[in-house]
Amino acid sequence: MIKEKGVIILRIYTPTELAQLLGIKKATLRKYAIMLEKEGYNIGRNEQNHRYYTEKDVTTFRSVMTGRYNGITLEKAVIGAIQSHGHTSRTNDTYNDTSESYNTSERMEKMMMKQLELQQQQLDLLKGISEKLEANPDVKNQLDDSEKELLEVKEPGPPEKPKDNRGFFARLFNKQ
Q1: pLDDT value for 93
Q2: Is pLDDT at 34 greater than 80 in this prediction?
Q3: pLDDT at 91 over 50
Q4: CA-CA-CA-CA torsion for 54, 33, 101, 120, nearest 10 degrees?
Q5: Cα–Cα distance for residue pair 14/51, rounded to 1 Å
């Protein structure tokens, strides 16, 4: 347990632990951390000046990753993550283009809604196929027979001819 700026932090992650938790490489985590720090986000450091991460940082990194997976550039994803979590140290004098981040948030929301719609369509298609299979036992039997054929061990056929290991010219001029 660490006390940082008057707030008690319950869980601390090393870079290796956080990379495993997020399912990314340590180098990718380092790249994201550097980008966040360039934008004014504060990541904790120990006595040896090594980074350590808190639950707040986990949430921020997940926001950056979500933006990246939805096709947003890394720079915009970092800025959006910082602003959405209220961790920005920039003032309006240094960064006035907030409409771009709102557009990014709206785009992300639209993309997530589209993804949910596609998932629902896939689920509906699978239900339809399942219902048709249940309604038509002949098709189901044919599928079961096909599966059995694929799983059966095939009997070995006649032995293959031994491979001729002679060189090219020996085979060309039929020399033993």
Answers
A1: 37
A2: yes
A3: no
A4: -70
A5: 7
Nearest to 77 by CA among 43, 45, 113, 41: 41
Q: Which residue has the tokens 């639209």?
A: 110
| CATH number of the 2-96 domain | 1.10.1660.10
Burial track 22-45 (b if 16+ CB lie within 10 A, e otherwise): bebeeeebeebbebbeebebebbe
Residue 18 above 80 pLDDT?
yes
Is residue 134 within 8 Å of residue 140, measured between CB atoms?
A: yes
| pLDDT over 80 at 5, yes or no | no
Note if the pTM is more than 0.70: no
HEC states along the chain? CEEECCEEECCCECHHHHHHHHCCCHHHHHHHHHHHHHCCCCCCECCCCCECECHHHHHHHHHHHHHHHCCCCHHHHHHHHHHHCCCCCCCCCCCCCHHHHHHHHHHHHHHHHHHHHHHHHHHHHHHHHHHHHHHCHHHHHHHHHHHHHHHCCCCCCCCCCCCCCCCHHHHHCCCC
Residue 11 in this model has a pLDDT that exceeds 70: yes
- Residue ranges per structural domain of the chain: 2-96
